[in-house]
Amino acid sequence: MFKVGSIFIPVTDLERSKKWYEVNLGLTKVDEWQENGADHGVGYVFENDVTGLALIKTEKPQPTEFTVKGKNKNVYYNFEVDNIQQAYDRLKQNGVETTDIHDYGIMKGFDFFDPDGNTFSVVSEEMNSPYHKDNL
User: Fold this and answer.
1) Is 135 exposed, middle or buried (0-12, 13-18, 19+ CB in 10 A)?
2) What is the pLDDT of residue 128?
3) pLDDT at 112 (0 to 100)
4) DSSP label at 65?
5) Distance of CA 29 to CAs 3, 52, 125, Å?
6) 45: number of Cβ within 10 Å
7) In sequence order, what DSSP letters do the residues of 99-124 get, joined into one string?
8) What residues contact 71, with CB distance under 8 A and at least 6 apart?
9) What angle do CA 118, 114, 16 make, to 5 degrees?
């Protein structure tokens, strides 16, 4: 009945972010809109998918993660890929700041950061993971 329609990401420089997200995530632009005569947002879809991602212009950076306990933080969502090494290599080749790839047994993952310092996780589920697409 329900599914994720769009993910909204706060960005302070819409033009810079549009280029960055198009190059690094391979998104397809669907629409752009204005508010009070100024650029306000741009909507994308992921390649071969209908899930949307929208960049929304904000006056100052906003958090894309929350604090679990102490300094332990967690992102609100992650991006799933079939080949984590390929995704990692693409971002590194484009000069994107990333963490190392971590092996969690049933999945591998790493974080990366956009020009506003927004944190995002990338994961790749192993075949024995209950979250692997073939097991759902």
Assistant:
1) exposed
2) 80
3) 97
4) E
5) 20, 10, 27
6) 15
7) ---EE-SSEEEEEEE-TT--EEEEEE
8) none
9) 120
Q: What is this structure's pTM? A: 0.88
Q: Tens digits of per-residue pLDDT, 26-53?
A: 999 999 998 888 889 999 999 888 899 9
- Picking from 9, 65, 19, the residue whose alpha carbon sits closest to that of residue 41 is 9
Tell me the residue length of the chain.
Answer: 136
For residues 68 and 44, what is the distance between their CA atoms, to the nearest angstrom? 30
How far apart CA 95 and CA 49 sit, in angstroms, is 26
Distance CA 69, CA 17 (A): 30
CA distances from 43 to 57, 73, 86, 113, 133 (A): 12, 27, 25, 20, 26
Sign of CA dihedral 53, 55, 56, 62: positive
Strand runs labelled E in the chain: 6-11, 28-35, 38-45, 52-57, 65-69, 72-75, 78-80, 102-103, 107-113, 119-125
Tokens read off for 10? 């706060």
128: left (phi over 0), alpha (psi -120 to 50) or beta: alpha
Distance of alpha carbon 136 from alpha carbon 127, whole angstroms = 11
